Amino acid sequence: MPTFQTVRGMRDLLAEDAEMLNFVISKARETAKLYGYREVITPVIEPYELLSAKSGEEIRSRMFTFKDLGNRTVALRPEFTASIARLATTALKNEPKPLRTLSVGSVYRYDEPQRGRYREFYQSDFEIIGTSNPEADAEIILLTDRLMRAVGLRNYAFKLGHVGVIRGILSQENVDEKAQNAILQRMDKKEFDEAFKLVESEECLKTLRGSLELKSDDVFETVERIQSHVEGYSKAASSAEDLKKILKLVTEGECPVATVEPAFARGLEYYTGMIFEVYIPELDIALGGGGRYDKLIEVFGGEPTPATGVAHGLDRIALAMQMQKTAPSTKPEKRVVVVPVKEELRGEALRIAQKLREAGIPTEFEVMGRKMAKALEDADRRKVDYAIIVGERELKQGAVMVRNLAKREQILVEIAKLAEKVQS
User: Fold this and answer.
1) 331 within domain boundaries
2) What is the rounded distance in angstroms from the CA atom of residue 378 to the CA atom of residue 384?
3) Are residues 236 and 361 located together in one domain of the fold?
């Protein structure tokens, strides 16, 4: 018989990794609750036309795409935003604004597998729909800051930019949207020479090249430099002013913004405004990122609706925690195993196990039919805290023997007080 392995780029998450991922997911949901975001669940498979409409050349080329049995072209979702934009034009169309949504789950891209990058990975996606005000952009950055703190990460920092600056320059120089997208795609990969080859105007080229030299250690000084640099480009200047307002709100919220990147771009075509990413020093890939997309809902047949959002790489956050040796900040639960001394006592032992579970105590039952010594040895090896030994003589007293496996001590405890004793 062949030995099967996972498909390349896919992973089995064993117990400890699954616990870490679920811890991060729980903190994302906790953050959503604190900020007033409500969770929605959308399909893993969506029409290819929906997912490809404004995702960008890079993501389109890496989607898992196939024909279903009805000969429809469908794809595994590479991210959540397109699905939420679809919802905003259909089921959520008449919901009061702003609309705040959370989505959590797996997404798929045919990337080259490497540390922190897989073909199946997990995201928490926050979207706020219905407002163009800078407070909304600041909110998605601040909730990301809150999530980073909630999982215990240190020394993380944000990088901000505004895609409207570059688009504003290109638009005023009459560069069409398709060419703009191609330029931004290459800038996202830091292939600036390749990007600038697509620019015909010498004046435009000079302005774009000059934007690479504007970065300063002081984020507000960088924004001032951008504003001076794009003077004469009205849309670009307006975008720089918008970035300044967002930056002010974020810093007033005590969020650590490390840099403002004048030529920063992200791979998705639908961005129209502020964009950002968050990093830790130990990892050279972003833990999360997002930005403003004011035209996407309109593309999908809705009314013109401003929106902004962020996706967090939950696997990457878990990896970052491991790299920083950050343990999940959860109170360890006591674990017990119930072991009957002999076969005839299994029914009574099961009733005791059920009572412990109903009291909220994680309880295993000895299902292997081991002798007492072997059962206790196995429980100790698996770091179980207490063994509840159910014996005939103790049952006649309405009690069981409770063995502390770490201390190698045991005491007689009344069954009526058992749950209280274990919890204390």
Assistant:
1) no
2) 9
3) no
Closest CA to 102 of 190, 25, 203: 25
- Two tokens, residue 173: 């120089």
Q: Are residues 124 and 231 in the same domain?
A: yes
Name every residue whose Cβ is closer than 8 Å to that of residue 337 and which is 6 or more positions away in sequence. 363, 364, 365, 366, 375, 379, 384, 386, 387, 388
CATH number at residue 342: 3.40.50.800
Residue 330 pLDDT > 80: no
In this prediction, residue 205 has a pLDDT band, given cuts at 50, 70 and 90, of confident
Q: Order of strands, edge to edge, in the sheet holding 65-67? A: 45-47, 73-76, 65-67
Q: What is the pLDDT of residues 210-239, one digit of tens each?
A: 988 899 999 999 999 999 999 989 999 999
| Statement to judge: residues 342 and 318 lie in one domain | no
Q: Do the domain assignments include residue 25?
A: yes
CA 114 to mean position of chain CA atoms: 18
Nearest CA among 393, 293, 274 for reference residue 80: 293
Lowest mean pLDDT among 85-94, 175-184, 229-238, 349-358: 175-184
260 with 385, same domain: the answer is: no
The percentage of residues in the chain with a pLDDT greater than 70, rounded to a whole number, is 100
Distance between CA atoms of residues 204 and 222, nearest Å? 20
User: For residue 174, what pLDDT is reported?
Assistant: 87
Residue of 195, 193, 196 lying closest to 205 (CA atoms): 196
- By the 8 A CB rule, do 383 and 333 touch? no
- pLDDT at position 58, please? 83
- Is residue 6 situated within a structural domain? no
Q: Give the residue from 230, 121, 77 showing the smallest Cα distance to 167.
A: 230
pLDDT in tens, 307-325: 999 999 999 999 999 999 9
Read off the pLDDT of each residue in 57-68 and give the average, rounded to a whole number.
93
Q: Where are the alpha helices (DSSP H) in 304-369?
A: 314-323, 346-358
Interatomic CA distance for residues 94 and 17, integer angstroms = 40
Q: How many residues does the chain have?
A: 424
* Domain that residue 292 falls in: 15-323
Domain count, the chain: 2
Q: How far apart are CA 419 and CA 413, in angstroms?
A: 10
